[in-house]
Amino acid sequence: MSLLIEEPPLQVLPSLAKSIGLNEAIVLQQIHYWLRKSNNVKDGHKWIYNSMTNWQKQFSFWSLPTVKRVFRSLKNQGLLITANYNKAGFDKTKWYRINYEKLQHMSQRSDQNDPTMVSSWTDGSDQNDPTNTNRLPENTTETTTDILSGKPDHAPYQEILDYLNSKAGTSYRASSKATQRFINARLNENFTVEDFKKVIDIKAASWKDDPKMSKYLRPQTLFSNKFEGYLNEPMPTMQPDNPYDRYYE
Hints:
This protein has 249 residues and is an alpha+beta fold. The protein is 47% helix and 7% strand. It contains 13 helices and 4 strands. A 4-stranded antiparallel beta sheet has the order 1-2-4-3. The longest helix is centred in the N-terminal third of the chain and has 16 residues.
């Protein structure tokens, strides 16, 4: 099968790539595409929101660290503006919009012979929309909404809860919407399943045999906004007759 134009292609303006970088131009064009479709208007601007993990699914030809670097570069260049309009305080999912004013200023400084970088971005029509519609999986706002609503096929709820139950002697259910929200909030901050397991190990070693603290071996405590602090705690020091020797194997 030929790899030449047998699927809807990504588009990038050469002058934009020259000005801000090829990877940055590809990502910015995709963000612009989603912004044109977005109904999320806050403070007079359209916004989209997504986790880095789901952005990487749209740019599957790049690794997650590469996608993060590109987004960081766009933000450092002043072309990408981020905010948090999430209703839940623990939800750190980032919202994004393009700084079109900065982009327009860059366009005005570009060569007269270069195609205008933003003319096709700022007018009311999108001549390339039939091409753009399916060029990448449509999993920005839509997929993020599904994740926050707690659909178990989008996050490793079962694996995390099974691990917690086995270490803490609990019986929390992966189908709990409240528990899923806590897990989603941390996943959207790019923490991994291994991070969840490490926090469970550390706090189980600290709290399980403490009558006052064992009750806190629960998702709303372990996976709260204190998660990163727990993750960076050292494993409790092993004592000669410590019943948690298994945590150090």
